[in-house]
Amino acid sequence: MPVLGFVVALPGEARTLSPQRLDFEETLALPSGHWIGVSGAGPKRAHQAARRLLDQNVDALISWGCAGALEAGLQPGHLVVPERIVSADDEVFVPDPSWHQAFLETIPPSLKHHTGTLLESLTVIKTADEKGRLQRATGALAIDMESAAIARLAKAEHLPFLVIRSIADHASMTFPEAINRSLNPRGDVNIGPLLLELLRRPQDLKGLIQLGRSFSLAMTTLKRVKDAQNSHFSLKGR
After folding, report:
1. Which residues pair with 69 in a beta bridge?
2. Nearest residue to 161 (alpha-carbon basis) of 53, 66, 71
3. Cys staple from 151: which of 92, 93, 129, 146, with CB 3.0 to 4.6 Å?
4. Phi then psi for 209, rounded to 5 degrees?
5. Residues 6+ apart with CB under 8 A from 125
């Protein structure tokens, strides 16, 4: 069976693949024989994590985790399995077509899923206005910070890749300012500054709760996708 390497940005996303707690920049061998690498947010960290997985002789790469919706019809918990990824400098990457199609056929019918274009962002897109501008300019369904870097490395190494992302914030959501001021560059929230900001801006609590619920829906979807697989994630015979 081919060995897959899953690149995830956040430890919470890694928990949808393994019950073992992982920290940033950690790599773990799964009982199935596959590997997880926790990168942290952003293309540079994703590239480094994918490179560490290549050192474990994986046969293919999967970008796994959350994305932000750009198109209004996408809701938290919807699955995005893009058929093309567009980088911030307009380079286009196409997942392995046969693997992409085979994976789509394994998605539980009750899960709402979308294909189309996933856009790369070099920063966290925090406001509904920014999301709307990007959607109008590109026509993309959703956005993330890691998939293009993973796709670029897979292309350079002549390896198949797949992108599996669950929506964690809808297009009309603007992040609470308390989150914006406490989010660090690798993608996790500093609790002390967050609590301080909530004392200053208690009106942000409602948005924070909404964001937490949306992230939980995204994680539930990823767990369902993982549970529907038979460890191979549809990549056979490579």
Report:
1. 142
2. 53
3. 93
4. -65, -45
5. 68, 131, 134, 143
Q: How does DSSP classify residue 199?
A: H
CATH number corresponding to 4-173+222-228:
3.40.50.1580
Q: Report the predicted TM-score, pTM, of the whole model to 2 decimal places.
A: 0.92
Comparing CA positions, the residue from 230, 86, 108, 55 lying closest to residue 163 is 86
Residue 43 CA from chain centroid, whole number: 12
Angle at which helix 147-156 crosses helix 43-54, to 10 degrees, equals 40
| Model pLDDT for residues 96-135, shown as the tens digit of each residue | 999 999 999 999 899 999 999 999 999 888 899 999 999 9
Which 3 state secondary structure label does DSSP give 224? helix
For 122-156, give one letter per residue: b (16+ CB within 10 A) or e.
eebbbeeebbeebbeeeebbbbbbbbbbbbbbbee
Output the six-digit token pair for 82: 């893009």
E strand map for 81-205: 84-86, 92-93, 113-114, 117-120, 142-144, 161-169
Residue type, 135: Q
Length of the chain: 238
The Cα–Cα gap between 10 and 159 comes to 23
Phi and psi based region of residue 231 (left: phi greater than 0; alpha: psi -120 to 50; beta: remaining): left
Do the strands 4-8 and 60-69 form a parallel or antiparallel pair, or are they unpaired? parallel
Q: Which two tokens stand for residue 84?
A: 């093309």
